[in-house]
Write a structure and sequence with these properties.
The chain is of the alpha/beta class. It has one domain (7-239): Rossmann fold (3-Layer(aba) Sandwich), CATH 3.40.50. Helices cover 38% and strands 9% of the residues. The chain contains seven helices and five strands. It has helices at residues 11-20, 43-59, 86-102, 118-128, 142-149, 164-173, 218-239, and strands at residues 4-5, 23-29, 62-63, 105-112, 133-137. A five-stranded parallel β-sheet has the order 1-3-2-4-5, sandwiched between helices. It is globular, with a radius of gyration of 18 Å. The chain starts with a strand and ends in a 14-residue tail after the last helix.
Length: 253
């Protein structure tokens, strides 16, 4: 069997696919938010959809259409960013999980593409735990592979926003949407409590960039995506109670 794209399938296609085995469904949950002058507003959605598609291929699962909006209040100072309330993100996850379970999906894997979604998506997973099976993936292994492939410093430990990593991933997935002529580095001075309280990104970085996209390449993006997918498979196998040998970091043995 191969993956089944839910948006392209008929109801009988779904019935037959689910009947063949216990089915994993993959939901990319992205955002529509600024990623500097060189990347599209859909960056997070592009990235999590690319990862979800590879996971669905690996498991011959159902690939749901992405949710292209997320909780991204902190980027609201930049034109084009469209944010959902955290309660809306939780409600969307809950409704989708209950719907896919109703036609036989065994596990819903939410492939989260945006930091702002983490709390509300995990809140949904906790609330649903007694009713069915949900697993949330938050770019597993991204910091590890980032440390291995990055030529530029992090703007803050683990902060990945319009930098070398995100730009490389979009170059690997949707290169036509990247504008290299607009690359600029930005290393804003961040408050000591950054990450622990709500703060608008436009007050920190006028360009919306946190890091340096200039050394980005599609090859780096492919390395990052492949590593995150392997780490995600490892998490899924662990969640399902199966053993899986994960990858080594690039350049390690």
């Amino acid at each position: 069997m191969t993956l089944l794209r839910l948006a392209d399938a008929s109801w009988t296609d779904v019935r037959d696919h689910v009947a063949s085995a216990g089915t994993l469904a993959f939901l990319p949950f992205g955002a529509l938010e600024q990623h500097g002058p060189h990347l599209p507003l859909s960056t997070d959605t592009i990235q999590c959809t690319g990862i979800a598609e590879r996971l669905a291929e690996h498991y011959s699962g159902l690939l749901l259409p992405p949710v292209s909006y997320g909780q991204t209040w902190d980027n609201g100072g930049f034109p084009g960013t469209v944010s959902l309330k955290a309660s809306t993100v939780t409600a969307i996850c809950t409704d989708i999980a209950e719907s896919v379970w109703s036609f036989g999906v065994s596990t819903l894997v939410i492939v989260n593409g945006d930091y702002g979604n983490r709390a509300p998506v995990h809140a949904a997973a906790r609330a649903l735990a007694e009713d069915g099976d949900v697993l949330v993936l938050d770019y597993p292994g991204l910091v590890e592979v980032g440390d291995a492939v990055k030529e530029t410093p992090w703007a803050a430990p683990g902060l990945c926003h319009a930098d070398e990593l995100e730009t490389s991933m979009v170059l690997a997935l949707e290169p036509r949407l990247v504008h290299p002529e607009r690359y600029e580095a930005a290393y804003p001075e961040l408050p000591a409590d950054f990450g622990t309280r709500p703060i608008r990104f436009d007050t920190l970085s006028p360009s919306g960039v946190f890091g340096d996209p200039r050394p980005s390449t599609a090859a780096k993006g492919e390395t990052i995506i492949s590593f995150v997918v392997e780490r995600a498979i490892e998490e899924i196998e662990s969640h399902l109670g199966r053993e899986h040998t994960g990858p080594s970091a690039p350049g390690s043995s």
